[in-house]
Design goal:
alpha+beta, seven-stranded mixed β-sheet, 5 helices, about 35% helix
């Protein structure tokens, strides 16, 4: 799966990423805040978008109907006091979108390289490739 492979590669290099996968709740308002892309899901494209200092590396990539539809998108930020202080804005944004929608948000930490998934208001941290793939396929 290109998303899993891209996340694992970025994790090894400690390149941050935030990928949101639309489910039943339409993310049209979030998509409008970014740059339109409309491309097939591709490992190299994902890695290039999140390459440090690329124009779209800040913000979220949104995937809808098995296509990358936008990048550089702004997400609602969770204000939960239960989020560990060691987690940054990407994690708060991932949890924010997961609290307000049924989307799945994948975060690769720039600090630790750790992979986290936010879904249904919960964070699943320190995921392996197998665990990430299972979470993504489980909710297809």
């Amino acid at each position: 799966m290109p998303i899993v492979m891209a996340c694992m590669n970025m994790s090894k290099r400690k390149e941050g990423a935030l990928i949101v996968i639309e489910k039943g709740t339409k993310l049209g308002e979030i998509i409008k805040t970014g740059e339109p892309i409309d491309a097939a899901i591709n490992q190299l494209l994902i890695e290039n978008i999140f390459f440090k200092n690329s124009p779209l590396h800040d913000g979220a990539m949104v995937i809808s109907q098995k296509r990358i539809v936008a990048a550089g998108c702004l997400l609602p930020v969770s204000h939960s006091m239960e989020i560990p202080k060691s987690l940054g804005l990407r994690h708060r944004a991932a949890l924010g979108v997961a609290q307000e929608t049924d989307a799945i948000a994948v975060v690769v930490s720039e600090e630790t390289g750790a992979i986290t998934v936010a879904h249904r208001g919960a964070l699943h941290r320190w995921l392996t490739a197998e665990q990430l793939e299972k979470l993504l396929f489980e909710h297809e």
